[in-house]
Amino acid sequence: MSKTDPIKNTEDIRRLKDYFLHKNQYRNYAMVTVALNTSLRIGDLLGLTWGDVYNSKTGRYREHIILTEQKTGKRNTIALNKEAIQSLRQLQDTLPSPSPGEFIFKSRVGVNQPIVRSYAFRIIKQAVVDLNLEGTISCHSLRKTFGYHAWKKGGPPALIMSIYNHSSIEITKRYLSIDQDDKDEVFLAMNL
Question: Which listed residue, 96, 108, 110, 136, has the most CB atoms within 10 A of its CB?
Fold first, then answer.
């Protein structure tokens, strides 16, 4: 498996999201937006149902996604921010009243089946090619992008490590692809 990169340029993130939005591909737009804003692995993301994010009794989006991660078996609580909710709302508005048990990122094949990981990968890869984005960008890049930008906005490394369930800060540093340009930015901004 090749190493994937986070999307470091915020303009590239906007372009990726807009790529799907301008094509009226609301499912794919929501998939990318929710992934970028929750740090979920693609398997956990694709397994989400409307009941995980929306309370149909109150007609309101939930404040948190609560799930057991497939890879680690650990329970995780993730706050849903405005950007994620907005993308889900746009998708929901295109659907005929999805039920709580329906998958959010539903396949057109079968009855109530989520899209598969390989199809999600192809969706992202096609957008990356069409947009000529640099780096090795895949579904996992969306998870890494969350952490990279959380770190750039001053998120404590120990907290980011906890969000990812990493066992050491060294793993988190490698995961975020912190490179010489990032180090230079810190040095050049100091000017004490």
Answer: 136
Contact yes or no for 91/106 (Cβ under 8 A): no
CA gap 28, 119 in Å, rounded: 11
Looking up tokens 């984005």, which residue turns up? Answer: 133
Amino acid making up residue 168: S
Gyration radius (Cα) of the chain, Å: 17
pLDDT tens, residue by residue, 22-58:
999 999 999 999 999 999 999 999 999 999 999 999 9
Cα(85)–Cα(91) distance, rounded to whole angstroms?
A: 10
pTM (2 decimals)? Answer: 0.92
Q: How far apart are CA 64 and CA 78, in angstroms?
A: 5
Percent of the chain with pLDDT over 90: 73
